[in-house]
Amino acid sequence: MSLLTVGSVAFDKLETPFGKTDKIIGGAATFITLTASYFVKENNLVAVVGEDFPQEMIDTLVSHGVNVDGLEIRKGEKSFFWHGRYHNDMNSRDTVEVQLNVMENFDPKIPASYQDCDFLMLGNTAPAIQHLVLKRLNKRPKFVLLDTMNLWIDIALDDLKALLKDVDCVTINDEEARMLSGDYSLRRAAKTIMAMGPKTLIIKKGEHGALLFQNDDIFFCPALPLEEVFDPTGAGDTFAGGFISHLAKTDDLSFDNMKRAIVYGSAMASFCVERFGSERIQNLSQEEIAARVEEFRKLATFEL
Amino acid sequence: MSLLTVGSVAFDKLETPFGKTDKIIGGAATFITLTASYFVKENNLVAVVGEDFPQEMIDTLVSHGVNVDGLEIRKGEKSFFWHGRYHNDMNSRDTVEVQLNVMENFDPKIPASYQDCDFLMLGNTAPAIQHLVLKRLNKRPKFVLLDTMNLWIDIALDDLKALLKDVDCVTINDEEARMLSGDYSLRRAAKTIMAMGPKTLIIKKGEHGALLFQNDDIFFCPALPLEEVFDPTGAGDTFAGGFISHLAKTDDLSFDNMKRAIVYGSAMASFCVERFGSERIQNLSQEEIAARVEEFRKLATFEL
């Protein structure tokens, strides 16, 4: 099945307890489409970058089979830039600097060849822009996954609530789920958020795993306990990308298959954090992915 | 198989966001032996209380099949007392007051009828006392589980390290594992702690589940996402009690059976937190336990 992803393609500058980077390539849609490249053939990107974005990175996306017909390159403008600093526990971070640049007035364009997409991944960006992409498709995709964050709950709650009515599934972290629902209990928070629209909800808990909710069903997938978490940047995008692209690959929206999809998402995220930026996600083999998923099976399953 | 438990039998006074209690019955060995009563018949207790301890509660233990021959009642003295206050997130707590009373010079006595015990549960108390119990057994039990806490790492580290050499398995929470090992990564912390003696290690993460380590094997069991956590007091003791008493019931120390034991421990702990103190653990049926374990199976297992 075909996948369409919208989101940022951008520069990141990172500081972690393990080191610093200069400007490297980041952005939600970068992590998502690179991840999806291991699962689907029709891997379509909608994003905007400035003239400063390196052709080499666009070539990397293309070499991974990403369709960049929907990647707008704005002359005379600069790409989105985020500078983040992680705390020692790697679970919290500060934004040192943000430059919106081309994202300030991003007007997503959908190439005609993308119009019949089956799966839509609304990577983290302003809810109004995510909604525009959905509205600009002639036919509603069979599955729409929304990723969002605390910033949009803070500054664009009405847009987010309008969008929530139109999506099938949301990924959000535990703190954001509490913020959006006003409830500390994640089980009750999940019910409140699903009542806002999405039939399925994923609450990400970082190193503590992820919860999948649908009706009264709950599934929990742990994170793999790693010796080192080198850089958590992009882990949430990679997780969402692995989840939706496993669904797109298998074209099966049953709860049992969503469980498998969460495991694939978690496996891909566990690779992501092993290196700075998207380095690890650019260099994976199907054998490595299969072996990692098997590690999750050993870690989480038991027989009574 | 027979189980011997040593630990506190005591009074607790609790404050949670949901309410307060007067003095109620608490103590590690209370939670452990009540939990074990659903699994094993030979359920032997070694503990000390003061003259103020209500006969009614001793009768409750006896009615659950707990052998109280090793429960010393000290005339003219008072029972151990702990007053705790939980924060709003229920994951952290302050000690408002502690009165050691009879625990100050606890000299554990092992009745002759306990001497051939197969499984030994060293419930949370001073490591020197836990070690005494082990040394006072004529025959080493086939499995010794140690539960400990940050207090003993702080004030009795040498005693704890000596004891670690003589036990098979330890349960400890994530913060304490980091404290004891000096390593933030739980995977590396586990290796460090196992090198101190125990072949098997359980790291408890409260609402985030528990990790079981043995050699290079890792198993993760989630906590059940509950709508309400009413009172976490005793959850760790109940967890340890469920773990060891499933092992004692089945007399199977394979890693696969330890996985099941962790699930039983987690299931019992999920009941514990539903009411104040040991109320819920006093009133369970085998049907409720089986149904709860089945909830864990649905929550955690998947097929690839």
UniProtKB/TrEMBL annotation, chains A, B:
The UniProt record lists the keyword Zinc-finger: no
Pfam families tied to this protein: PfkB
MF-aspect GO terms: kinase activity
PROSITE patterns: PFKB_KINASES_2
Segments passing through the bilayer: none
Keywords recorded for this protein, A-Z: Kinase, Transferase
Signal peptide: none
Protein name, entry field: Sugar kinase
Organism, as annotated: Emticicia aquatilis
